[in-house]
């Protein structure tokens, strides 16, 4: 099972074999790496390279592991023995931007930030904004159906995907979807491939919905004594019919760590919430957010100008890097019904105590999407197994509260054992049947996602 | 192939056979009825009846045609020889309404209007609003991924579906999706079944996203001399970053017919556009809509109070019933990129002339979704074949302009021949493979959708 030199010459892009493959290609940002060495790495230069890589791997009996920027958090792009790694980050052209139709056609390796910047030139924006926006590829964002900070108003990556170009297991190129705002012809293949984590085909291009840049943006933040009133304030904002573009929560220690990293002598609090409103009603909504927060705390701050808004948001964005100073981090990604946010945060605090682990929680309160960050000190060999056990309890908690094990990072390798517990045997069987129908020989990402 | 009397007794709901089945059950609102008589009709009283109907039909060698209110427009619920009609409209309970989590769990037979009314009691609404909202069932809305007037801001039915309960071909009950705002665990089965037109399973219940009732709603209408400036005005509104909740267009004759039906001596015009803005920015957006319309016509009307708004909207809602006075109507449903609306309307006018057919066009300009209505006089035997030929040219036009053959009604029987022309052989093969994987014996709705 090695790639013949003649096959290598057929590619326009670079091909590496065995020991020549850099170690970084075996893993993603989760740090998970399977045993064994990958057979080949194809740095695809175009769609023909992708098709050739798929058929070549099939003929050689290798599996295909597709990769964009390698910024995944669930091990979905990790590659081990017997695999051909197919890096599509070189397919990075914006093929079309049609302002009147509010859409763009891009290759899979384009970053969301690059597309957003190009759209901005036409008064438009690409709404999905995963934290990795500057580095991750849109192909990877689609493969994981990535979320981000603006989902509460603008939805997840999938809500912006109108159509896809996908290379199938037989090397054929499939076009799904449409260029129109609506369309219901046939089964929704676009949504099926979105979030499929590399197990059904290789996404090589996408038709994406753009939106107007919001006409106004206002930031409102508040410090609360405890998590309960913070969660209640978030619920009250939504019940007041406000649709914030962002509604983020940090627990006590996430706030402290973030302030410490930024070197600001900020206020201490049991919880911190930062909201943004935008659009034609931004001012009225921001006033109502501030008033509503004021029913739960006296410490409300409104950022009217971009600088003040940036300072309030910086705390939220600093939360993860601040924790990464203290060791390896397990970035978890549960979602609970919004009414259960406070219960989930409290329960995570108990789990941390029970496993002598440090777990800080922040996340997208507007969606009920929490990121408990388990810090694993590098000098404590017993900390990692404790962290894994704590993560399992966090998943169990999410399910007990009516939630899910992943809101935006995917199942990958790391949460595979939990999928059937969440969805039941009929759902797993149905998904496996679809996988077999599209990839009968198990070419794509075996051992992942399902 | 008849249903044994013993099998009939096992159902809680009513079962009819052969000649006892009312003729209306053989067709839907499209008027299409296949040849041959259906074998049995099961009026399901609960999920067990649905499961029993599926396994009984499979054992007896019958196909299963699922049906809600029978308000479909593409023949998807039409039933002929060898079929068991499974009517799920009796499953009509709202099982849960959770205001804090902004969701409802309903059985498939509930109407969208009934759910919306119940949600209103909690300050919430169910956003999807197909024209058939008062009579159609949510199960049918999901099976066709139905649209409506508010899609331009709030999306289609699928955008409100969080999870489904589906009876599969083996009679097993599948739960898909989640109760949370986000969630990416596993393949997106929820979207796969949404819009699947009864070919993959029987939708028996759904978890649906609710939204706050908009805080304010303002209606703006305008009369234009021709279709081109009307379409340009719609494009200008969207380019001005307004997100209207509704943006509807009527051509000259649709306007005249609607005014005639309503008995109002309205203004004549080459095109009529009615927009609604809502939410915290409704007033600012309405002002900008009126100003933008004013750049293309001097005849702009703003409906500030509900009564005035209702009068402006009534014209739009009267357009279809007005045309139904003149004969059988073929209700087409194309979508074009928004930049092609004027081109599409002009082309449809030419097609009407070429086929000596009466075709009036109105639709959802904000989405580029047009409903050309072909009127077939009942006293002209040659009008129907001409209408069908004209419809084919309309489909071809949609594809030429980069659009789709159906925006919200589905493929059913009537547009099957066009699906491959729109999507290509790889997309059709992929969809067929998924259909076989989930329904290997072709039990569900054979001859439909694909």
TrEMBL record, chains A, B:
FAD-binding PCMH-type domain ranges (all copies): 34-213
Cofactors: FAD
Database matches in PROSITE patterns: FAD_PCMH
Pfam families: FAD-oxidase_C (PF02913), FAD_binding_4 (PF01565)
Keywords: FAD, Flavoprotein, Oxidoreductase
InterPro entries named in the record: FAD-bd_oxidored_4_C, FAD-bd_PCMH, FAD-bd_PCMH-like_sf, FAD-bd_PCMH_sub2, FAD-linked_Oxase-like_C, FAD-linked_OxidoTrans_Type4, Oxid_FAD_bind_N, Vanillyl_alc_oxidase_C-sub2
This protein's name: FAD-binding oxidoreductase
Source organism per UniProt: Nocardia jiangxiensis
